[in-house]
Structures are given as structure tokens and as C-alpha cells.
Automatic annotation (TrEMBL):
This is Diaminopimelate decarboxylase LysA. The active site is at residue 341. It comes from the Bacteria. PROSITE patterns: ODR_DC_2_1. Keywords: Decarboxylase, Lyase, Pyridoxal phosphate. Residues 39-279 form the Orn/DAP/Arg decarboxylase 2 N-terminal domain. The modification N6-(pyridoxal phosphate)lysine is found at residue 54. One of its GO terms (biological process) is polyamine biosynthetic process. It holds the Pfam family Orn_Arg_deC_N. One of its GO terms (molecular function) is diaminopimelate decarboxylase activity. InterPro entries: Ala_racemase/Decarboxylase_C, DAP_deCOOHase_LysA, De-COase2_N, De-COase2_pyr-phos_BS, Orn/DAP/Arg_de-COase, Orn_de-COase, PLP-binding_barrel.
Length: 428
């Protein structure tokens, strides 16, 4: 059973000030979980979690994570800028990009972020772009083939655009070393949203063996190994979540088995989790505004795929709790829809739910990662506000909702802009 972190009574208070729809985040949950991550890896001296900023680029949330010790994993100019704005710099920022524009390497170098190269050709591109090879450098690995665990194939690295082959890594490390690199890292992201404690330990085993081989063949001093993201969460109520303490222990065993005997007991473990750090601690709160009875039963809500794209994009399951009806029987079957002119704009399809009346608040679970941040503006729909439920129970607005003015802002190069502003003013 999945339990909302707010009650109906709390939401009824909040909507007096901040109308639905909005994403709301649970500060307490974020902090407790981040601390559990640090506990799980406390055996490793240099451990750091670089929160994947793309999962939720709100600076207030970044600040909270930073207060627990997290750094930031960025893959674009604006993510780098945000990380810099909340005070992170140098080794606190990992730049794990791909197909990277030159100006992003320039800015990453300017703020001294650790650069994680996605491709062999980026060695030359980086050197040409920033005029040197940084002393600390990381390379992303792609082993090809399929990534398999005891319960079957988890993902398909051979089809993924990311990373370098092993031969490219060996050659790349030699070249980087010649050009002045002193501290090396390796990185790999081989499976997404894994709901098994085996993923990190198995990935770590592969990367640790690779690190030993790279050290032997190139003489490079490997100072960190980045397990990247991919640790999942139980979106469905019958799924069992990952146990981060078990995962940390599993990585520790591999470390003692492979790295320590090779004399590599100074290697820091890095992670770049997004989903695991934030998804369960966010929710999209939306109000039922219509019901429709045709060949199926529909509930129309005031949010749409613009606010949460995962169901439309991947058919992803997001659990829904009707606030105030937590214990009511699930004796109705609904499609819960948004208002986009796209039939995939559905938060749930044929979902068993309690009877929903207009005005009910739906708590759509697990939107803290890849939720707001994946949003877009299709149909000219505007993105929602973000709220923070603080540890003391108060609520803070951490991003206002978009207005038509925001939506039209980039038309300011056209004369119609004045007319639009006039219409906006008249509608106020
Ligand atoms: C998306 C991404 C992550 C985070 O992935 P999660 O599945 O949210 O943990 C980490 N590193 C890189 C390079 C990514 O692209």
C-alpha cells in the first residue's frame, strides 16, 4: 500500500493559497533518504552522491540535497548554471553529458566541474575547445551486449548511444595520461529504474574489474568509480523497494573482493542517482473537474501530461490515491485524463479506484523525479507550481506556476507581442 505524505485536510488548506495542479515535495522524506544513502556508503572514504539535476532541477531541492553532502550531476548548460548558483563548484559537480556542445565544455571547465567524457573523439574535441586536458578526468564505459542479472535481461547497452568501448577506454586513458591527466574516473549507466538490490553490486563488479585492467594496461591512477543512476523505486504498490543499505553492502563486498587485492583501496565510489533520491518524495496534486460516461468511464482532472509526462511517454504507472478516500473500496474503474488533444494524455487507464466525485483531490504518487522537469508546453498548456512541505509542516512556494506571459515571452521579437500583452492585461 502506498501512503500519501499529505492528508486531505492539509491539501484543503494549501489550495486556499496555491490552486491545483501542483507538485509538492516532502522535505523530511528527501533528507531521511539522502542520509540513508550516505550511511549505506559510509564504508567508502570518498563517497559522494551527485544528484542527477535533470530529475528535478529546483534550486531549493538542490540546496536541501547539498546540505546532506550531495554534489550535482549535470548534462547541460542550464543544469551547470543552476548547480553553480546554489554554490556548488569544482569536484562537487560532475558533468556527464553526451553529444556535448563546445560552450558547455567551456563553462564546465570554467567552474572546474569534473568532466566525464562520453566518447573517444571528445578527448580531442575537449582539448581543442578548452585548450588543455584537465588533471581530473572521467570516461564513460559501454560494454555493449545486454546487461543481465539473475532475474533476466535488464537493459540493452549495445543499443545505447552512450559511452566508449573497452578498447577505446584503454587507448583513451593512455592518450589522456600523455596529455597531462593525473586522476581518472570511470562511469557507466547500464540499466534504468532497477528494482533489485543486485544492480549496483553487479555493475560495481564489472567496473572494478575494468578499473584493475585499465590500471594494469595504462598505468592510470583511478581515483573514482561512478556507478551513475538507475536505482529504481517501486512505482506499483505490490513492488518491493530497494534496500539502499543492502546495496551499499553489496558494493562493499565487490570492492573488498576486486579492488583491495589489486592495491586500489583508495578509490572513491560516486553515484548519480536521480529517481531514487527524489521520486517518492514528490506528488502531483490535481482536482477532478469532470466525469464522462461513454464507452468507458472517465475522470477529467485539472493536470495533464504537460505536468507529468511519464504515463503518456512510456505508459509508466503512477499510483493514485484519492485524498480522503484512502480506505474506500476500489469499486470503480476509470481512465483518469488530462485535457490535451492527445488520447495518450491519461494518468491512469482502467484503474480500479474509489468512486470519484468532482472536487476530489487526486494524489499522483512518485513525481519527485522526471516529473515536473520532463514537462513541456504542448497545446499551450502551462506548467504548474512546485511547493515544498517543510519539516515543520509549513508549505513554501518554490516555483510559481507559469502564466500566459511566460508562454508568450519568446515572441518578444514580434510586433504581435504588444497585442498579446494587452490581451493578458485585459484578462487579469
Ligand atoms: C538520467 C541520468 C542519471 C539519473 O538516472 P536515474 O534513473 O534518475 O537515477 C544519472 N546519470 C546520468 C548520466 C543520467 O543521464
Amino acid at each position: 500500500m502506498k501512503k500519501p505524505f499529505v492528508t486531505k485536510a492539509q491539501i484543503e488548506e494549501i489550495v486556499k493559497k496555491y490552486p491545483t495542479p501542483f507538485h509538492i515535495y516532502d522535505e523530511k522524506g528527501i533528507i531521511e533518504n539522502a542520509k540513508a544513502v550516505y550511511d549505506a556508503f559510509s564504508w567508502n572514504k570518498g563517497f559522494r552522491e551527485y544528484f542527477a539535476v535533470k530529475a528535478n532541477p529546483n534550486p531549493v531541492l538542490l540546496d536541501i540535497l547539498r546540505s546532506v553532502g550531495c554534489g550535482f550531476d549535470c548534462s547541460s548548460m542550464t543544469e551547470l548554471m543552476l548547480s553553480s548558483a546554489v554554490g556548488a563548484s569544482g569536484e562537487e559537480i560532475m558533468f556527464s553529458s553526451n553529444d556535448t556542445p563546445a560552450e558547455e565544455f567551456v563553462y564546465a571547465d570554467k567552474i572546474n566541474a569534473i568532466i566525464n567524457l562520453d566518447d573517444f573523439t571528445h578527448i580531442e574535441f575537449l582539448e581543442k575547445t578548452i585548450g588543455k586536458i584537465p588533471e581530473t578526468i572521467s570516461c564513460r564505459y559501454n560494454p555493449g551486449g545486454v546487461f543481465q542479472m539473475s532475474n533476466g535481461i535488464m537493459d540493452n547497452p549495445g543499443d545505447a548511444k552512450y559511452g566508449m568501448t573497452k578498447d577505446q577506454l584503454i587507448e583513451g586513458f593512455k592518450i589522456l595520461k600523455e596529455k597531462g591527466a593525473k586522476r581518472f574516473g570511470i562511469h557507466a549507466f547500464l540499466a534504468s529504474n532497477t528494482v533489485t538490490n543486485e544492480y549496483y553490486p553487479q555493475l560495481a563488479g564489472q567496473l572494478f574489474e575494468l578499473a584493475v585492467e585499465l590500471k594494469e594496461k595504462t598505468g592510470a591512477h583511478i581515483t573514482f568509480i561512478n556507478l551513475s543512476g538507475g536505482v529504481g523505486i517501486p512505482y506499483k504498490p505490490d513492488q518491493k523497494g530497494n534496500d539502499i543499505a543492502e546495496i551499499g553492502k553489496g558494493v562493499h563486498e565487490q570492492y573488498d573482493k576486486i579492488l583491495v587485492p589489486a592495491g586500489m583501496d583508495d578509490v572513491a565510489i560516486y553515484t548519480e542517482m536521480g529517481r531514487f533520491m527524489m521520486a517518492p518524495y514528490g506528488a502531483l496534486v490535481t482536482k477532478a473537474i469532470h466525469e464522462k460516461h461513454i464507452y468507458k468511464e472517465y475522470i477529467g482532472v485539472d493536470a495533464c501530461a504537460v505536468n507529468l509526462m511519464r504515463p503518456a511517454m512510456y505508459g509508466a504507472y503512477h499510483h493514485i490515491t484519492v485524498l480522503g478516500k484512502e480506505n474506500a473500496p476500489l469499486d470503480h474503474v476509470y481512465d483518469v485524463t488530462g485535457s490535451l488533444c492527445e488520447n495518450n494524455d491519461k494518468f491512469a487507464i482502467e484503474r480500479s479506484l474509489p468512486e470519484i466525485e468532482k472536487g476530489d483531490y487526486l494524489f499522483i504518487h512518485d513525481t519527485g523525479a522526471h516529473g515536473y522537469s520532463m514537462g513541456y508546453n504542448y497545446n499551450g498548456k502551462l506548467k504548474s507550481a512546485e511547493l515544498l512541505l517543510k519539516q515543520d509542516g509549513s508549505v513554501e512556494l518554490i516555483r510559481r506556476a507559469e502564466t500566459p506571459k511566460d508562454y508568450f515571452a519568446t515572441l518578444d521579437c514580434l510586433s504581435v507581442s504588444a497585442k498579446l500583452n494587452k490581451i493578458i492585461d485585459e484578462e487579469k
